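Exercise 7. Given the encoded structure of a 293-residue chain, write a plausible sequence.
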């Protein structure tokens, strides 16, 4: 899998599907996730609709550049942020969502792509929104999937989902794979499949199990704050997709995003949680193909 230098400090692992002459679609992953979270069969199916599909590891995920010289004590960071000690919180975090957004656009530049359709999922949706806000000239369209606006009153996780996400992951492979079952709390109630979750966990562990980056990514999300005012001014054609079964990012996050962005289209998907079950791929790919036409 190629690794490309996108700036003096960051190299990104990426993979592309389809004809480089087709319209480019950049897929942005979520919190702690590797590019594997965009399943290769999903990428190929979208490429078969005449798109040049690019998936990549965010900084501090997978095989991309790590910032291990800046460890983040999550408990101490959250205590500082929660108490309003902004200076202390800022001092702990080496980057923001703006830096992660620039990484993705720098990847496009390195690949010789001036403008692209950008699709972000979960934290990737926040990154994609930031790309559109700060670099609107680089986006053909924006798709924000299972994400939110950075406003604390929207898109909240249920207490059970929040606790499961925050629970430390086992360090050993067997334990890590078994713990993937936690994600059933926010997966599709109809299509959630423990075997699918465990397979992704096993492939992710074997490829690059380096959980230290999650604290830095969390800090980037928290410190980047609300995008509400900027989203109100956005003029990039926008599609918002959210599953009605999502308990990790409540559907109010998607509704609020679509409410703020002028002209945004909102697709609320029954039987979809904070996941993309294979059974719903035809619906999702049809929506993406139409939006990026």
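Solution.
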């Amino acid at each position: 899998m190629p690794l490309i230098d996108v700036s003096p400090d960051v190299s990104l692992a990426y993979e592309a599907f389809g004809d480089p002459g087709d319209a480019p679609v950049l897929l942005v992953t979520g919190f702690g996730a590797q590019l594997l979270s965009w399943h290769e069969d999903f990428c190929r199916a979208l490429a078969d609709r005449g798109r040049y599909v690019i998936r990549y590891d965010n900084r501090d995920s997978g095989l991309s550049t790590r910032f291990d010289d800046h460890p983040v004590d999550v408990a101490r960071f959250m205590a500082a942020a929660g108490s309003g000690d902004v200076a202390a919180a800022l001092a702990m975090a080496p980057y923001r969502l703006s830096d992660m957004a620039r990484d993705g656009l720098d990847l496009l530049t390195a690949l010789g792509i001036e403008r692209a359709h950008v699709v972000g999922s979960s934290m990737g949706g926040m990154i994609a929104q930031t790309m559109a806000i700060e670099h609107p000239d680089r986006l053909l369209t924006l798709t924000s999937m299972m994400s939110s606006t950075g406003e604390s009153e929207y898109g909240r996780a249920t207490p059970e989902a929040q606790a499961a996400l925050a629970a430390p992951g086992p360090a050993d492979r067997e334990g890590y794979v078994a713990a993937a079952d936690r994600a059933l709390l926010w997966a599709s109630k109809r299509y959630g499949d423990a075997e699918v979750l465990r397979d992704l966990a096993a492939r992710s562990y074997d490829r690059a199990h380096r959980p230290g980056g999650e604290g830095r990514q969390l800090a980037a999300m928290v410190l980047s704050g609300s995008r509400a005012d900027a989203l109100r001014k956005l003029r990039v054609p926008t599609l918002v997709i959210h599953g009605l079964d999502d308990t990790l990012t409540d559907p109010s996050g998607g509704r609020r995003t679509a409410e703020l962005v002028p002209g945004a289209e909102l697709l609320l998907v029954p039987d979809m949680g904070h996941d993309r079950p294979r059974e719903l791929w035809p619906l999702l790919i049809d929506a993406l193909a139409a939006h990026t036409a």
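Remark. The chain has a mean pLDDT of 95. Students should compare their own answers with the one above.
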